[in-house]
Amino acid sequence: MTELASHPTQAASAWFFDFEQALRAHKLEAAMALFDADCYWRDLVSFTWNISTQEGPAAIKAMLQARLADVQPHNFQIEGQATEADGVIDAWFTFETAVARGRGHARLKNGKCWTLLTTMTELKGYEEKKGAQRIKGAEHGVHPGRKTWLEERQHEQATLGFETQPYVLIVGGGQGGIALAARLRRLGVPTLIVEKNEKPGDSWRKRYKSLCLHDPVWYDHLPYMPFPDDWPVFAPKDKIGDWLEMYTKVMELNYWGSTTCKKATFNEARQEWEITVDREGREVTLRPKELVIALGVSGYPNVPKVPGAESFEGDQFHSSKFPGAENYRGKKAVVLGSNNSAHDICAALWEEGVDTTMIQRSSTHIAPSESLMELALGGLYSEAAVKSGIDHHKADLIFASVPYKIMHTFHIPVYEEMKKRDADLYGRLEKAGFLLDFGVDGSGLFMKYLRRGSGYYIDVGASELVANGSVKLKSGVNIAQIKPKSVVLTDGTELEADLIVYATGYGSMNQWLADLISPEVADRLGKVWGLGSDTPKDPGPWEGELRNMWKPTNVPHLWVQGGNLHQNRHYSQFMGLQLKARYEGIPTPVYGQAQVHHLR
Amino acid sequence: MTELASHPTQAASAWFFDFEQALRAHKLEAAMALFDADCYWRDLVSFTWNISTQEGPAAIKAMLQARLADVQPHNFQIEGQATEADGVIDAWFTFETAVARGRGHARLKNGKCWTLLTTMTELKGYEEKKGAQRIKGAEHGVHPGRKTWLEERQHEQATLGFETQPYVLIVGGGQGGIALAARLRRLGVPTLIVEKNEKPGDSWRKRYKSLCLHDPVWYDHLPYMPFPDDWPVFAPKDKIGDWLEMYTKVMELNYWGSTTCKKATFNEARQEWEITVDREGREVTLRPKELVIALGVSGYPNVPKVPGAESFEGDQFHSSKFPGAENYRGKKAVVLGSNNSAHDICAALWEEGVDTTMIQRSSTHIAPSESLMELALGGLYSEAAVKSGIDHHKADLIFASVPYKIMHTFHIPVYEEMKKRDADLYGRLEKAGFLLDFGVDGSGLFMKYLRRGSGYYIDVGASELVANGSVKLKSGVNIAQIKPKSVVLTDGTELEADLIVYATGYGSMNQWLADLISPEVADRLGKVWGLGSDTPKDPGPWEGELRNMWKPTNVPHLWVQGGNLHQNRHYSQFMGLQLKARYEGIPTPVYGQAQVHHLR
């Protein structure tokens, strides 16, 4: 390291100068001397053609050894000014590889690298046509026989899936499929979305009517087209539905609604999928090269098999089918479950004057929305963050820069603070018998989301109803039996009921893959989601990244896109680039392909 | 002025310090001493509740005398850094009045003000709910009987115009009506648009199929929601149509398609309009307080009455009804006119192999698109401008800061340059017999647009066809007579024809007002558009602003919104604020109400 390194930016520049020298010369020892013993390198497809984190010097060295000749990293440049706080220098940088341009973030401690993030932003020669590179639109000059934009678009829509085949078929036209299709559209990769609902946005519209987003607006933007600046903090479901429909149209996505997938088979000889779909009653066979499952990381609704359920004379629904509370005014409802949907539905029922009981089977993490916004998300996704220069693009990268291995250590203090701040509510909930937790290690909501995708409620009001008894609570029990007009709990209590709602979550996406393709292929792909944290519902061994998400799986040409709006926005960028590279025939050797440890 | 004024920002700060002192103390002589003898103050509703320019010291002094006590201007603050070039200091500033906040721009010469622009940005206490002030969306907590966003929106749509009345009715649902309605929606003013076409965007979709915007994308954004950064430079008409339809939906505008206005009367006793409309065959009477005409500054299509027209055996259309060239392959067409539509249609016909003749009646200004973009618009509306910090918000204010009285002096050098740059094309056009002009004073396209709204073609290729004879040209003539299979020109030439297109423009909007309301009211409102420049089609006396546009007219409660996308975006802000003030009962004494000098 040079002697100039007194200012953080100079220090970071010096580090990258040395780093680049070492990499260019393939001097791995020199490169590794620049890393702290406690070090992490997270790469989003720029070095590894994978989404992977190398944890510790040995793993980093092995990755460099394998990839350096191919990647040819160079032209590392500090972006803006580096900053220093608590002995850690934060630096943004850009870089190039043989085939791509990238952007990254580093944290340096004592002149050594603690965390490094490298991400691909664009493939050289295949940049998006935006800004100064945008198309003209009107082709000036005169062109006999020219087609208008409308004619070309109509021709594409009429022929895609018939005379021409999509390169990528996306199954599932919710936010995940739509975000990815927008990326692929920009990159010029022929893509088709198939969706069982009639229109984009219907998967939101069809949910219970009181539903609003639980994440704030700054976290929820789709790629390329941010929400207007008067968009509500928590958008109502139908407004999001309309936005998705509009977005699909103006982004010119190819979207087949009312289309269900019947069967998918990979034809090894032709190296393409054969996918039979039912499009509005007409059977069509699609032959894409790549198949993306974008069904929201879940499988079928979990509906517990309870003795006597078929004898029930009232209505019973899984939460995903719950039509709304209006029809149950003055009646009695039992809601099984205690996560987000259960709470939302209990509140909606209570608001309509329904006598409502929540059945809590096991402990739940409650994160009051205000506290979550201020303590957990505010620094990255808020109006204040935007004002301080952290828009959602930058926030996504900061978010991505924290290795999963140590992410919980960033979160634990947040929830320690939340416990103090919301002590009154937590105390009253416990008094009412509610079983609380903050995750096994106190790391709270987001870690639960990553590890198991469940086990929490972002409190937007229903916890008060539980605490004050407006919504009745039975905790530590389950439903043992259902009678024509009541449910009997495992502690013997019998509750009269006109309505039962099973807010019991969803199974694994693999159920769905097993039916669509085959149980063997579903098993070859393995469990989806979770980090391997060896915490409840997230068995080890440690994976270091979300299983199978947005990266090559063990089933060639089969991909999984999904997550919340933030993840769909950010990771669709890397899914898009991976698929574009394959479309253009750019070699994409995958480093560190994850093994499958859990079948479903 | 203080002695510190060596840096432009210090000089501008010192000027505004002195200016504010003088205004606060109502010392008009002191204030006027700060202005150059050659001075202009353009105000967009912040001082005058009008869109008006005071030209020269006497006019400025009179305005201050009349308005100062009421406006109470204060808190002038320089925004960013002032700059100096060629002895002129450019400064941005913010300020407040008794009821509003504003933003402005000043040009100072030798320490005195040459041009001053003041604009209102928001009314105090009635700010738009955006950014940190945005609504929550989800109302946290529990609210028995709460309505969802969808229920409220559906209720509004079902009742508006029936149980409840819009405060503002906008007649015309093109870009002008839509932009204004979006502003009013944000400001919470109940508004309804009525439009004769079925859907938003149809007024674009229904035009000739080769139509693309003639202005580049940076100039064309709607309020609040910019086009994505891959939007084409020149958007095709159907893409704009889709965007307008989407925009109307996501902005939650109340829009009645397939609705025609039959009759409008102002009820003096009730101080409201009574407007009979036909909505999909059902007659509805609407009772708004304010009526906005947003029909694009034109009236009915001009179709010249030519002897024998009724005997013509081919097709004849006004350009607004021209369906496209496909059906005329191998046939003969005559296009009357030589402005934008005439050129576009001639090119489309030629591309389809139609034998096409353009009839040029009088001289036309040709501005090659590339040159126009680079020489005239590039500094304000281009990717380069955006990169240098001039986004369209800032560009709109810079554009607005040039007083109309001296605007031509800013434009003449641009067109001098264009004459040189495109000398080859111009030479070949003249050789082909085309009658060229650059406006009577050489000030080119935009001044022609402001003065008369016609007389030019933004060349996107058709001029080459005229120059090389692909499109035949007859200039300095008109059609004298139409026979069953031909047209006879005023010079005696007879041209065979299967198709005649009248690209002959539109009449005055007053024709339409005369029919809808009454000829008397149309005359009371007077001529719309034009500056009073005493140039062809824009008779004097000098008005200094566009007649009747976006400001109070001589008919109380009757307003005109329109223009190109840039104007609709920018001036809708001021229309919105004027209407909001009236809706909230804020006094809006209009200073300098323009007189009517020309009836139609």
Instruction: Specify which chain pair forms the largest interface.
Output: A-B, 63 and 63 residues
Instruction: Give the helix proportion of chain A (percent range).
Output: 25-40%
Mean pLDDT of chain A comes to 95
Q: Record the strand order, biggest sheet of chain A.
A: 2-1-6-5-4-3
Strand runs of chain A, count: 26
Tell me the strand percentage band of chain A. Answer: 15-25%
Oligomer: homodimer
Distance between the termini of chain A: 49 Å
Report on the structure:
Two copies of one chain form a homodimer. Chain A has about 600 residues and is α/β, with parallel strands linked by helices. Helix content of chain A is about 30%, strand content about 25%. Chain A is built from 18 helices and 26 strands. In chain A, helix 5 runs parallel beside helix 18 (about 565-585). The longest helix of chain A is centred in the last third of the chain and has 19 residues, at about 565-585. The model of chain A is unreliable at about 1-5 (pLDDT under 50). Chains A and B meet through helix 4, helix 7, helix 8, helix 10 and helix 15 of A and helix 4, helix 7, helix 8, helix 10 and helix 15 of B.
Fold blueprint:
2 copies of one chain form a homodimer.
Chain A (H helix, E strand, L loop, with lengths): L7 H17 L3 H5 L2 E10 L6 E5 L1 H15 L2 E12 L2 E9 L3 E10 L2 E12 L25 H11 L8 E4 L3 H13 L3 E4 L7 H4 L31 H14 L4 E2 L2 E9 L4 E8 L2 E5 L3 E4 L4 E4 L13 E4 L13 E5 L3 H12 L3 E6 L4 E4 H9 L5 H5 L4 H9 L3 H18 L1 H9 L12 H8 L4 E4 L2 H6 L4 E4 L3 E5 L2 E4 L4 E3 L2 E4 L3 E3 H8 L2 H7 L32 E3 L4 H19 L17
Parallel strand pairs in A: 1-6, 7-8, 7-13, 8-9, 13-26, 15-24, 16-17, 16-24, 17-20, 18-19
Antiparallel strand pairs in A: 1-2, 3-4, 4-5, 5-6, 10-11, 11-12, 14-25, 21-22, 22-23
